[in-house]
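Following up on my earlier thread - several people asked me to post the actual chain instead of describing it. Fair enough. Here it is, all 77 residues.
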Amino acid sequence: MEETTKTVGLPEAGRATLYERIKETLAVASQLVIAAPVKLPPRVVAVARYVALALGVLEAVEGGVRKDGGGADESDD
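Reply from S.P.:
Thanks for posting it. Predicted structure:
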């Protein structure tokens, strides 16, 4: 009888999570709107800039948490 050794329920190693795919899609969409060669309404461009800024801040915070190894406040008062 052949045994199955496949793990169920865990994402594959090279596969991006839904959260990462949404972040990447928003980043690309905001970059396309900002760099569009056509004249877009100023509000659309402003929203795209804010989205790009928010994604940049989010990336910096996530990078800091990964670098610190958890991001917990370890100060002793």
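The first helix runs from residue 18 to 34. That should answer part of your original question.
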